[in-house]
Amino acid sequence: MTNYTFGSDNHSPVHPRILQYMEKINTGAMKAYGYDPVTAEAEKLFKTIFGAETEVYFVFNGTGANILSIRSFLQPFQAVICADTAHINCDECGAPEFINGVKLLYLPNTNGKLTIDQIASKLHGRGDEHHNDPAIVSITQSTELGTLYTLKELKEITEFCHSKKLKVHMDGARISNAAVALGCTFKEMTTDVGIDVLSFGGTKNGLLMAEAVVFLNSGAPVWIKHLRKQNMQLMSKMRYIAGQFLPYLQEELWKENAQKANSMAQYLRKELIEAGVEITRNTDVNAVFCRIPKQIKAKILPLYFFYTWDEDADEVRLMCSFTTQEQEIDDFVTLIRETTT
Amino acid sequence: MTNYTFGSDNHSPVHPRILQYMEKINTGAMKAYGYDPVTAEAEKLFKTIFGAETEVYFVFNGTGANILSIRSFLQPFQAVICADTAHINCDECGAPEFINGVKLLYLPNTNGKLTIDQIASKLHGRGDEHHNDPAIVSITQSTELGTLYTLKELKEITEFCHSKKLKVHMDGARISNAAVALGCTFKEMTTDVGIDVLSFGGTKNGLLMAEAVVFLNSGAPVWIKHLRKQNMQLMSKMRYIAGQFLPYLQEELWKENAQKANSMAQYLRKELIEAGVEITRNTDVNAVFCRIPKQIKAKILPLYFFYTWDEDADEVRLMCSFTTQEQEIDDFVTLIRETTT
Amino acid sequence: MTNYTFGSDNHSPVHPRILQYMEKINTGAMKAYGYDPVTAEAEKLFKTIFGAETEVYFVFNGTGANILSIRSFLQPFQAVICADTAHINCDECGAPEFINGVKLLYLPNTNGKLTIDQIASKLHGRGDEHHNDPAIVSITQSTELGTLYTLKELKEITEFCHSKKLKVHMDGARISNAAVALGCTFKEMTTDVGIDVLSFGGTKNGLLMAEAVVFLNSGAPVWIKHLRKQNMQLMSKMRYIAGQFLPYLQEELWKENAQKANSMAQYLRKELIEAGVEITRNTDVNAVFCRIPKQIKAKILPLYFFYTWDEDADEVRLMCSFTTQEQEIDDFVTLIRETTT
Amino acid sequence: MTNYTFGSDNHSPVHPRILQYMEKINTGAMKAYGYDPVTAEAEKLFKTIFGAETEVYFVFNGTGANILSIRSFLQPFQAVICADTAHINCDECGAPEFINGVKLLYLPNTNGKLTIDQIASKLHGRGDEHHNDPAIVSITQSTELGTLYTLKELKEITEFCHSKKLKVHMDGARISNAAVALGCTFKEMTTDVGIDVLSFGGTKNGLLMAEAVVFLNSGAPVWIKHLRKQNMQLMSKMRYIAGQFLPYLQEELWKENAQKANSMAQYLRKELIEAGVEITRNTDVNAVFCRIPKQIKAKILPLYFFYTWDEDADEVRLMCSFTTQEQEIDDFVTLIRETTT
After folding, report:
1. Any idea what the CATH number is for the domain that residue B317 is in?
2. Which of B255, C222, D28, D67 gets the highest tally of CB atoms within 10 A of its CB?
3. Residue A6 falls within a domain, yes or no?
């Protein structure tokens, strides 16, 4: 039987306390579409955590969060600057272009990240009617390559962007892993460094299916609810989405889960190194990138599913989640050792 | 405290057996995006129920199901024929036009329904490059007005449509209520009468958030998975969506819930009539439309939430769900009696 | 050989003075995309004619003008209220929905026109995220049925619309015919009665291909040039489009041509009546609608091309243009007389 | 007074023979929207020139031609592979993304061109629902950098693409300059080397405003006319667009004009070299790229308008057209000499 642990953090199940909470609120009729007391409580909680000006809008999935974030701050004749590795560029089947109509100006990433110089390089000729005018810079924290922007880097980027009339969107599909790794609060990593809008991810860290668009420093557009509805991201029984964030945030389940995932990645990295496997990138959060030659991969893959990152370079990605077990790692590394020798 | 029972069937909670099942499958890592054994089992079950040619694609919500259904069978320069009361026309904030690019040719409904003559009236001048060519007829079963197409009517419509090279989409947000009322199986009401694609709704009848696009007689387009992904309707932890349909369909929970809702509507209708309230439409399924004068409504609404259907005609809509209690109905009607006199 | 005179006013050729003017400006290199002195002169002329606040943007065709007008004042989650007969609803292959993403709320026309009561009927439940919020009312002057709004009606509509925060768009594909018929200036029929944005048509009245979006009382959106470019309506050699409006407006060619077309329609109407043909609508401008039974039509159509308006009612549309000749009308009516008897 | 000769080839006027031809066909009413004898003759002529299977659809401008070409062969969840310098990527204000919904996979150009290796690098993971599947490769001939694909290169690209189920689109905004430079016919450079769809440009080479989408080896989609109409590219008085191609192609005006433009570019290049100006790229057709330091540019620009290509590298683009005069070049180079010393 194949083990799917290292395939992705979204291969993981739901944390039991989340399902328990869903049972707890599963009583009686409540108004739909977010006009219920559970959602109201969750909305209030986001203000407590991210700052009083915060507005939160719950959506179904990460792509939905990113698309709504982008649509909130730009028109179809404008552009989003992002890294070539960005989820919005690689993994959303062109939804940014299809739904939002916009152009993505994607740049070669530097260790999964964008630099200010790169952003600046895309700001020539603004206002020319033949070009899409950049309006948003989208960064991912932690990045698709398992790396991190420091708080200082984030602040410098937002300051630069705001000075150029650009909004900053953070794709926080793995924001909890980032916060744990940086040892900071969500607010310190978003509101305080000047992020305008955040895709706050929960699904990859123990929630059933719960993502949110969080407006921090610029407010939400007046028509945000229409945008969400037209984007097919408005759920009727919202209490079961919004409600998941209550135990997740109040009981610091996000931290507990992310710490588990991150530390498992460190353990996996250490074990792989000891087994002689070449690590190819930093392991800032819960992803380990390493080199597994094709002939070895062919033998392991039927037993342990994971994704190849770079076919030519034999680079693969191993993700850990809050349910990854040391024993699974030990078994996996043992198999690699056995296969290699 | 306001009672939200009669507001909508999506104000209802989740059936406990659904949450229990979600706990049951909440074990270990599984591949995401539908490549897991739970989803595979659900897909197989849909084939059992709707016929061997069936293909099912799970989505987040009813709007998502309708938009994907439509996109599957038409190009943006084509048109959808529907009733003016259709959910796609009234309640999706223009997602059919925005996402699919298409024109809706909406016609004045006949008791919530479309007739063949009406459809035929929109088939002039086909092929003219100045006009959107009709490609799909979309009908709702049961309708937004709580009425039903008979199996004979459905068959006549699909036969007419197919003879005119039109596909037929059924918005089945309340398909269980319809099947129970007609005393037929899902297959008899869809595949057997020639429906091409169905939005199969579960959320309004006890599921947490689970809808499906079901291709019946025409197959799905080759690129259906790309369409779903680009439409932001692909969930990573699909087992928790697809899985809900297992107990729902296997244990006939759909029937149990819909019977409860429909019979509560009959009881409500009877009690309202006895209380002298004017009923304005047939009560074929779980909705009761009646006349409540403004001054009475003003007193009741703070205690019992429901939607006004026609402001000018004092017509309101009272929905029953699988959790509606006789006691709630009794209390509600008593209040009306007291307020009226 | 078929005579195409009565098919449409866009079947007509270009007025010779227009081609002469194009030759006149056909000298030397000029900056492209509207940054040339001919376009500057035309822009100035529109200000002279429509008022100092006017902004004009030239486009290729009437559909391009309507789509850009609409896009200028609404977002995709909003709606346009129009008559069912509106060109934007019937004859643009769904470009309003496809390009602008919006919903058209079309209403049964009253003699080709919208009434305030009808507009008001579509303003229920504004702000509800499930519905497209109406943002623009689009009227056609003269209408697709050859009728006219009076100046008083126009003023009442714009006042009502503005009080409801709705912009008013006028599709002026035949605005010259309307101005001539009402005996007023363009400004009196647009700026002065409160129109916000106008599709100013020239092609149907003697220009080669020249239409313009004219912003009157509300200014143009900041990004109007990007919208035009992204809508594929920006021409490089703009002098040849913009320039046509110079002789057209300065030498009152618009009036001369429209008077000719309108008076030919009156003559045609008179002759048809004398020949016993049933006229079905008012002939306010250059269109005559009348009843020609199928068997007669079958004989005439190979010789004189025209469009059937209502197949069931045997109603046809006969358009006159600035090149329609009395002799053509005489011959046509003679043929009808001969065919009828 | 500023001289605009070197700004762009679309700064040029219309060739007098074109306007003469427009006068010649300016007689009497003709059916609109392309159902006229002039258009029929032009359509036939394209078949003669490009091959019997050819279908041609006239549009307003180059962007309109490119967008319709792309829309003809791909769905919004697919992708176009192109060079970063492609007009569709840089100069259409995101119309490919906005109108077609697609993603552009743009690659760093090699001298304005794409290589097969580059195209191949974008073909990983096809069929994965998370990614836009490449469906079209778009190349520009001659390129935006004034360079050329050889016939051999073109054939190799189309063969590779077809083997990978990719269609090939050629943006031929300057196709005449390319054909003249390569000394081949249009057919040899398009149909014969396997191009599927061509944006055939005329405006930059002496036409008033006339571009065409030409389907060569794959036929046009069944709904092409609807696509053109919905894309707002259908003109009513089509005879004046289509008709321009008659003298242009029959009398080899295209060759005469392009030869003039190309030879002027050679002359300009030679003179610039003699004046000590650094040439930065090949001059295969009618564009000369060279280095003009900022302080010199500042003095020349008020007298001779041209575009800066690369601000940092002091690279500018000087375009020649069919109306460029030796005297203008002499004066321009003299001014550079004077300013430099």
Report:
1. 3.90.1150.10
2. D67
3. no
